[in-house]
Design goal:
Helix content: 40-55%
Distance between the termini: 99 Å
Largest sheet: 4 strands, mixed
Number of domains: 4
Radius of gyration: 36 Å
CATH topology of the largest domain: Four Helix Bundle (Hemerythrin (Met), subunit A)
Order of helices and strands: HHHHHHEEHHHEEHHEEEHHEH
CATH superfamily of the largest domain: dinb family like domain
Organism: Streptomyces longispororuber
Keywords: Transcription, Transcription regulation
Pfam family, one: zf-HC2
CATH class of the largest domain: Mainly Alpha
Protein name: Putative zinc-finger domain-containing protein
CATH architecture of the largest domain: Up-down Bundle
Number of strands: 8
Length: 425
């Protein structure tokens, strides 16, 4: 309640008590303003006046309109014009299609590193009871990526033609199969690792011993008695899961277990069975299988017109490192076969691999099993990381692979052809 003699703050017309100075009789709170509509004054414009442009100007704006670079008024004028002018409408449609080609095609796959980051975050909170050895992580990631691609393709696409490529005797060769045939090939060659771990051989208990990767693939294709279908995906994926579980339970020490790849001298070889050597330790064999899984996933993706990304950089680096470590023995084998001349001892070549997953390696040219010496460096080769891997897979010719070459040309040629010789069916 207001005190007597004082203005009431809630009464805009209260002059205050009589005898108290300052009362003016004017309201203390302004009254509402009169609406503009009731004053009779012209109302402000609510929208800008549309642009009136002649045909040549509107036609010149079509390119900017296709790129969404027009002002709102210009865009409205162009769109109004397109409803009345057939030639301009056709030109606008062509320009819009051309703008679509300027944007790179985005992969439908997730970021290759996303799965690794999610797992690392989860495992950081609660470590696994049976951890996966670090050297098996690339195989786990690449088989999962390929399986995600296979889930997205239809029944007809499993029979899409795929051409497998590699180098044999310093010349490119190829073999035609289908998407299902590629998965059958991976299943058969992964069986080398499975049998080394004591698991079931996909070729069956009666499979001939000592078969190399190409011979195993041919045997599996022959035994099928019909072209493979999408039914091959399930046994392939089951085998990859079993391999990952087995090496996880076996622990990191199992990485030294030998996995035979080569063929005994008294056994008939199939084309492409010369690499990567008579045996690899399990840790390198799992990495080699991850590499081939990625390469053939790219073959499949190309056949079904599907975008596919390279492996995560840390996995790609390990694949490049494996190829670099296999080069000295491959160089020695080429010299024994008469495909490369011998040179003075102590020479080395610096291999610089650029991009994500890259690095530098000193490759001994004349003494396999030793480390290259900077004092004996006779040449330097620089390549992109993915390009080097495709060279090692036989998908790029040695003449086209090197981005930079300095030094002994003969040594450079030997190393590039040795890298291509790592490839096989």
């Amino acid at each position: 309640m207001n005190r007597p003699g004082l203005p009431d703050p809630y009464d805009p017309y209260d002059r205050g008590g009589e005898g108290v100075g300052g009362g003016t009789g004017r309201p203390r709170i302004p009254a509402p303003r009169v609406p503009a509509e009731d004053t009779g004054a012209p109302l402000p414009a609510t929208a800008p006046e549309p642009l009136v442009l002649d045909h040549p100007v509107l036609k010149s704006l079509l390119g900017a309109w296709a790129l969404a670079a027009c002002s709102p008024a210009e865009a409205a004028a162009v769109e109004e014009h397109l409803g009345d002018c057939g030639p301009c409408a056709e030109e606008a449609l062509r320009l819009r299609d051309a703008v679509g080609l300027l944007h790179p095609e985005e992969s439908l796959d997730l970021d290759p590193g996303l799965r690794t980051r999610v797992l690392a975050s989860c495992l950081g909170r609660r470590p696994p009871r049976v951890p996966l050895p670090d050297w098996a992580a690339p195989y786990d990631a690449e088989t999962a990526r390929l399986d995600a691609l296979l889930k997205d393709i239809g029944d007809v696409e499993w029979h899409a033609p795929v051409r497998l490529r590699w180098f044999d005797d310093d010349r490119p060769v190829s073999r035609k199969t289908t998407v299902a045939g590629v998965i059958a090939h991976l299943l058969a060659v992964d069986g080398l690792v499975a049998t080394a771990l004591g698991l079931e051989d996909p070729l069956g208990a009666d499979a001939a011993p000592g078969l190399g990767p190409a011979a195993r693939t041919e045997a599996y294709w022959r035994a099928a008695q019909a072209p493979p279908t999408r039914a091959v995906r399930e046994p392939w994926r089951d085998q990859t899961h079993e391999l990952i579980r087995t090496v996880s339970f076996a622990g990191g020490g199992s990485g030294r277990l030998p996995v035979p790849y080569g063929v005994p001298p008294d056994t008939t070889t199939a084309p492409g069975d010369a690499a990567p050597g008579p045996a690899l330790p399990l840790r390198d064999s799992m990495l080699e299988r991850a590499f081939e899984c990625w390469i053939h996933a790219e073959d499949i993706a190309q056949a079904v017109d599907y975008p596919y990304e390279p492996p995560a950089p840390r996995h790609l680096h390990r694949m490049i490192d494996l190829a670099a470590r296999l080069l000295p023995a491959t160089l020695a084998e080429r010299r024994r076969a008469g495909r490369a001349p011998a040179g003075p001892p102590g020479r080395s070549l610096r291999l610089e691999v650029e991009g994500a997953g890259g690095g530098e390696w000193l490759i001994p040219l004349d003494a396999p099993g030793t480390s290259g010496s900077p004092d004996g460096e006779v040449a330097h080769v620089a390549l992109d990381g993915v390009e080097f891997c495709r060279l090692a897979a036989g998908h790029v010719s040695p003449e086209e692979a090197a981005a930079g070459q300095v030094g002994d040309r003969e040594a450079i040629r030997d190393v590039l052809f040795a890298a291509a010789s790592l490839s096989r069916l």
